[in-house]
Specification:
Blueprint: H1 3-21, H2 25-38, H3 42-52, H4 60-80, H5 95-120
Helix pairs in contact: 1-5, 2-4, 2-5, 4-5
Cofactor: FAD
Catalytic activity: squalene + reduced [NADPH--hemoprotein reductase] + O2 = (S)-2,3-epoxysqualene + oxidized [NADPH--hemoprotein reductase] + H2O + H(+)
Membrane topology: Multi-pass membrane protein
């Protein structure tokens, strides 16, 4: 009975620790996207905080859905929001490089969360 609760909290805490304590471009993109997502409104942070706060919600599938949402939103922020030191959104000619960065973000979240999920499931 404890397995879904314990695995959800373990996966979330280990993957968040990996994402927010690491340095690198992909991690910076995910951190910025996550903070902007949670800063939008309370309804956007309700599910993730309920997953983390004493296991109010204990669904591994909900954790995966929220993680995918964070990655997709982070990539959207990468493509649409100005970068530090620049007051304009990326130009059209920057998109090929941004696509490479987006693929790196997807790869990185898989490398961070994959082993933790494998060990917990």
């Amino acid at each position: 009975m404890r397995k879904p609760l314990a695995s959800t909290i373990n996966i979330m805490s280990m993957s968040w620790a990996g994402i927010f304590s690491a340095h690198g471009e992909a991690f910076d993109i995910m951190q910025e996207g996550t903070f902007k997502f949670y800063g939008k409104d309370v309804k956007y942070s309700h599910e993730p905080m309920s997953l983390l706060a004493a296991g109010i919600l204990k669904s591994p599938s909900l954790l995966v859905r929220n993680s995918i949402t964070m990655v997709v939103f982070s990539i959207w922020v990468l493509f649409t929001h100005p970068r530090p030191g620049n007051k304009y959104a990326p130009r059209f000619y920057e998109y090929p490089l941004l696509l490479v960065k987006a693929l790196n973000v997807i790869w990185t979240i898989g490398v961070v969360m994959g082993p933790v999920m494998w060990a917990e499931m």
